[in-house]
Specification:
single chain
Length: about 290
Amino acid sequence: MKVLTTFSEGIEYCMASHYFSIVHLHKDMGVLSMHSHLCHEFYFSLNGGCTFMIDDKNYRIEPGSLFMVNQYEKHQLLQMDTSIPQERFAIFIDPSYLESISTPRTDLTYCFTHRPKKFSHRIDLNHGQQRRFMYYFNKLAAEEGFGQDVEERSAFAEFMVFITKLAAEAFLGRESQEQRQYFSSKVTDIITYIHHNIDSQLSIGDIAAHFYLSTSYLCRLFKKSTGTTINSYIISRRIELAQKLLSAGYSVNEVYSMCGFNDYSNFFKAFTKKVGISPKKYSQNSLR
């Protein structure tokens, strides 16, 4: 895969190809304005010396910082210390492609959909993890040749498994290894089930019955593992789906039922609270 040299090239290629793109930057990028784009992003810095603003959070970028930004999160990169040489890497990913290579047991969208209350967009990679990140990046950047497209897709899938495991461990905090394995497996299955049924009238009772759990235990397990309630998570996923459909040109009246809301009033209140503007206004802005 060709290694691109600007953020704009990476975003444009990702969106046009409905695939992914890789970017390696050396030069000073100055100040980038607050923005979002219709693809997920990994941002990795070898040097630090910058500040990353993502929605309402500010992060100091240290050497080895890896950031995970989804397609809806507004973000801005500020270079604070111009004396520090800047070498950084970005990977832009089409959300639909990432969904297509996920499985019911392995949700590779986890890094970009899992947003508990105390969530951090940053993972600080140790030296071994940094080397492994660079190993995958260089493998993706391999020259074209026979079978390279297959190797490229395989290397990307391996890379996503590697990062998803790191993210799951970081999100689950300091639970014991046994608890982490249980929570990660069970809650990942629950989240995958929600994703696959988000367009239906999904209830906590339905989910609990599917996994042979009591509703109270399901709620405790989900909150303990993710830091957010299962209702809040379902609503967030519904709103994300609504944003995607509105951006694709569906009408507001079509969208609310396609996202599992039982009436327009509930949809309007939830969407406006989450996004900050009404569904109609969001649709008009997206289609300009």
